[in-house]
Design a protein that fits this description.
The protein is an all-alpha fold and about 250 residues long. The protein is built from ten helices and two strands; from the N terminus they run H-H-E-H-H-H-H-E-H-H-H-H. The protein is about 65% helix and about 0% strand. Helix 2 runs antiparallel to helix 9.
Length: about 250
Amino acid sequence: MAIKDFGKDLKSSLHDAVDTVKAKAKEVELPDIKEAGEKTSERIKSLFNKTDGDKPYNEAAVPTQTITSISTRSAIKIIYFLMAADGEIYHGEEEKFDLIGKELDPDFSDSKEQIIGECQGALDKVIDPEDYYDALQDGAEEALLSSQKTEGTSISPKHLVWNLLSVAYSDEKYNDTERRFLKYIVRKLNIDKAVFLEMESSMLTLMDIERELAWIKTTNRPYLTVEAMVNQLADRKNVISESVLDLISL
């Protein structure tokens, strides 16, 4: 997901704007944003404490060699493997894949079919059904290894992980297999787990805001009241997006 470059001075002005909106909307029976945030935090804690069969996330699993950049072609392959992780590629995922592919590679329309063919070739190596995840992981590892020998455009590891999260959440079905695959990529790229969890939390919050925005726009509340709440949520979304941009740039 591409993130717009919001101004660094936006945060302070937004706080004032949000306070004003809250004062005007006190009597409106709309979803409690604070309560929604608390629910989101609880969901995140529950998600993080899941046991998904993946190996422990510890320093022993971190590679000794740090990958500082990934070729755009390899990044697109890894995104495809994530989409295929649960055995079915959904329409929302495919749309996001095309969007990110075009942003990363101006020639994506010409290379898309070949990239998908190479990914399918890796998945065709499955001997038994239980080998499917191993084939995904092998394909991703090969993409990372080949990336180190490729010249041309590239993206940072954290940028790749954010794009992976964007695709994983695009169908609102971020499942255990997708998260297991993402954690594998995070380990291979030697990204600090605290950074990954913060990115995951930010994406979850952004999705909650999107759902709340969609709900508010369907209510029969007065236009000015709805507009005030929509602006408040949009401001929160902007602040979170700016925070993610800063995190990716570090």
